[in-house]
Amino acid sequence: MSDQKKYALVTGATSGIGKELAKLLAKDQYNLVIVARNQDVLNDTANELKLESGVEIRTLAKDLFKREAAFEVYDEVKRQGIQIDVLVNDAGQGQYGEFVETDLNRELDIIQLNIGAYVILTKLFLKDMVARKEGKILNVASIASKLPGPYQAVYHGTKAFVHSFNEAVRSEIKDSGVTLTSLLPGVTDTDFFNKAEMQDSKIVQEGGMADPADVAKDGYEALMAGDDMVISGFKNKMQVSLGNITPDSMVADAMKKQQEPAEGKK
Fold first, then answer.
1. How confident is the model at residue 185 (pLDDT cuts 50, 70, 90)?
2. Mean pLDDT estimate for the chain
3. Could you give all domains of the chain from N- to C-terminal order, each with its CATH number?
């Protein structure tokens, strides 16, 4: 690898955990392909990362809510003759509210973003990695993957898919020289809650959110070590451990209390 530039591709790279992971990759001298919807914000992020690290940054403005966009990301990378050594699927969104009241079309978009884009990009880049017997993939799941989530039923469902998918594919490729790592953050101080219109929920109002830089560091270390998964944060580890030995219906009711609108916000 020493005579060849190393490249990492990061989706959701302009904010939150994705941006922090991009910074860590750049610091380790990975050239970057960063993907997000807004070209101006991508340019700002690219300039910032370039100043900090001096690596080469390429931007791809793609709307991963659209099914064809993930295929276009792969095709554009191939067209430019870039070999992706590390893939980070981070882009994801949720929608807050009771399932009978929420916007179905938005939820279908979220399923495409949180599941469809992950599956497409993982499959296409994984095939190349397995063929050359090296590569690393980090798929950002969530502790939501382990906990049913009233008021965020679709988001938690998508993350359960991502983590289950990761575990299955990891087992299939065990002896390939390629690793697939699942990052399970908890409540993190990112733009996720604004986009989900979730600012009035107890879980946000009561504070105690993780720093995205700390979450990214946990994920990055696990990715580089080729670990199966990492739950970021002691409190989140405890919550998942308790969830594993508690009936799902009780876990769902407990999560409902955490995620319901705060007093005075109903």
1. confident
2. 87
3. 7-259 (3.40.50.720)
How far apart are alpha carbons 139 and 128 in whole angstroms? Answer: 17
Q: Which two tokens stand for residue 160?
A: 């359960």
Question: Whole-angstrom Cα distance, residue 212 to residue 220?
Answer: 12
What region, left, alpha or beta, does residue 36 occupy, with left being phi > 0 and alpha being psi -120 to 50 degrees?
A: beta
Report the first-to-last Cα separation within the chain, whole angstroms. 56
pLDDT at 192: 56
Give me the pLDDT at residue 250, please.
72
Q: What does the alpha-carbon distance between residue 173 and residue 152 come to, in Å, rounded to a whole number?
A: 32
Contact 11, 91 (CB under 8 A): yes
CB 178 within 8 A of CB 86: no
Give this prediction's pTM.
0.87
Our CA dihedral for 198, 202, 207, 211, rounded to 10 degrees, sits at -40
Compute the C-alpha angle 66/259/204, nearest 5°: 85
Provide the token pair at 82. 């870039």
Q: According to the model, what pLDDT value does residue 40 have?
A: 96
Active site residues: 155
- Per-residue model confidence (pLDDT) at position 2: 42
**Total length of the chain:** 266
**DSSP H or E run through 65:** none
CB 5 within 8 A of CB 56: yes
Helices assigned H by DSSP within the chain: 16-27, 39-53, 67-79, 104-111, 117-132, 153-172, 192-195, 202-205, 212-225, 234-244, 248-259
